[in-house]
Design goal:
Keywords: Carboxypeptidase, Hydrolase, Protease, Signal. InterPro entries: Carb-bd-like_fold (IPR013784). Pfam families: CarbopepD_reg_2. By secondary structure, this protein is an alpha+beta fold. Among the domains are: 195 residues, Immunoglobulin-like; 40 residues, no CATH class. 19% of the residues lie in helices and 34% in strands. The chain contains nine helices and 22 strands. Strands 1, 9, 10, 11, 12, 13 and 14 form a seven-stranded mixed beta sheet that branches. It has a five-stranded antiparallel beta sheet with strand order 16-15-19-20-22. The protein has a four-stranded antiparallel beta sheet with strand order 4-3-6-7, with no helix packed on it. α6 packs antiparallel against α7. The relative contact order is 0.17.
Length: 408
């Protein structure tokens, strides 16, 4: 079994229903003095953005009913986010920004000898280590603030402004309002959450053609693609197969109490003094050391396809939900795992007939999980991903309003 490594990845919590109705979000942006012209207003997860006019007003038109997160950015003010629900009519909001006091006064920052290490770790686990990640750059790592809790063995990161990420592999400039980042040194579990907005980079026709191709590859087989297909009950047509995988006790491994007692007996002399021991790999001590190194559980794969009708249930008019015990073993057959993935420690064991299909494992830790028609997942900490989906991170995401061309 490969080394367990998981990460929780928030898929943007916005929903757009494919309805003929069209509404808008309008509003004003102000501070304690008055209305603010020139404030940038975005919709999280989308390529939808605008700027307030001379009267501090903005309009985000042609929106379907759904749940949206508005992001507002302006130099000298703290980033702002507001959740808006559109049901059967347009919505008007009033947004008040607060001054960013750290930008208004000189701040003396004590150099952190570990900061370069923290930034490198953050990039690996936030941007990723895929080929696309090699073409991604965080342009303003200075906004990151790290806290390394030595006792809990957890590294957290916050940002005092939007992270600006330039993805030259997919042709996007991403503004990401980081809400949480957590890396557990002990469990190797990564969790991050935030609100992104997307802007197309400018490039030649050949670059744009290459970006379209890479975006299709990034979307196909992704978490977003999976949940969108799951919502629409089109998994098989979209190339997905779901099996179940469960952890079962390793019956060939002795109990810890027996293993530890025998190792202690073989390594301790009279009066509690340790003996000088040599062994050749076939003696009793070697046997018990090998017993201790064996995993306590083994993974059992059930190759029977999961019945989607029993797995997915409607929650309300906008959401569907899942509640399951054993892990979901998700096979995507329309793309193969890329060669660099084999060196990532994420590769999952598989039967020979599955070859190099992209395989991910999904475990539910906080049931149930609810999701939207556009592939957005509502509960940010509900799921742990292993395999291919743990390998792909920010460098391989596309906007929630991304539409795959029929030719792709």
């Amino acid at each position: 079994m490969t080394k367990r490594f998981a990460f929780l990845f928030i898929l943007f919590f916005c929903c757009v229903n494919a309805l003929a109705q069209s509404f808008s979000i309008t509003g004003t942006v102000s501070d304690k003095v008055g209305l603010l012209p020139g404030a940038a207003v975005y919709l999280s997860g989308y390529k939808i953005a605008t700027v307030t006019d001379n009267d501090g007003k903005f309009v985000l038109p042609r929106l379907a009913p759904g749940n949206y997160d508005i992001l507002v950015q302006m130099i000298g003010f703290l980033p702002y986010t507001k959740n808006v629900l559109i049901s059967d009519k347009s919505v008007n909001v009033s947004i008040a920004l607060q001054e960013n006091t750290t930008m208004l006064k000189e701040v003396i920052i004590k150099p952190d000898p570990n900061r370069a290490f923290y930034i490198a770790l953050f990039k690996d686990y936030f941007i990723g280590k895929t080929p696309n990640a090699a073409e991604c750059t965080i342009l303003n790592t200075d906004v990151l603030v790290f806290d390394d809790d030595k006792d809990a063995r957890i590294l957290t990161a916050k940002a005092n402004d939007f992270l600006i990420i330039e993805n030259k592999a997919l042709g996007y400039r991403i503004k990401y309002l980081l809400q949480d980042f957590e890396y557990n040194y002990k469990t190797k579990i990564i969790y991050f959450a935030g609100l992104p907005s997307f802007e197309d980079l400018k490039g030649s026709k050949s670059k744009q053609k290459n970006w379209l191709k890479k975006r299709a590859i990034a979307y196909n087989g992704s978490i977003q693609h999976f949940f969108k297909s799951l919502y629409n009950n089109t998994l098989a047509a979209e190339g997905f197969v779901i099996n179940k995988i469960a952890d079962i006790p390793n019956t060939s491994r002795k109990p810890d109490s027996v293993i530890n007692a025998n190792i202690k007996r073989l390594t301790t002399g009279q009066a509690g003094l340790s003996n000088l021991i040599t062994f050749n790999g076939t003696d009793s001590l070697s046997y018990w050391l090998k017993q201790r190194s064996q995993p306590k559980t083994l993974s059992a794969l059930n190759r029977k396809d999961v019945d989607i009708d029993t797995l997915v249930k409607p929650f309300n008019s906008d959401l569907k939900m899942m509640n399951f015990k054993d892990g979901l073993y998700v096979i995507y057959k329309d793309e193969k795992e890329i060669p660099s993935f084999n060196f990532s420690a994420h590769r999952q064991n598989r039967p020979p007939e599955l070859n190099n299909y992209q395989i991910s494992v999904v475990n539910l830790v906080e049931p149930p999980v609810r999701f939207y028609a556009n592939g957005g997942v509502l509960e940010t900490r509900s799921l742990i991903y292993k395999g291919y989906w743990a390998y792909e991170k920010i460098a391989d995401i596309v906007p929630m309003d991304y539409i795959l061309s029929p030719k792709q």
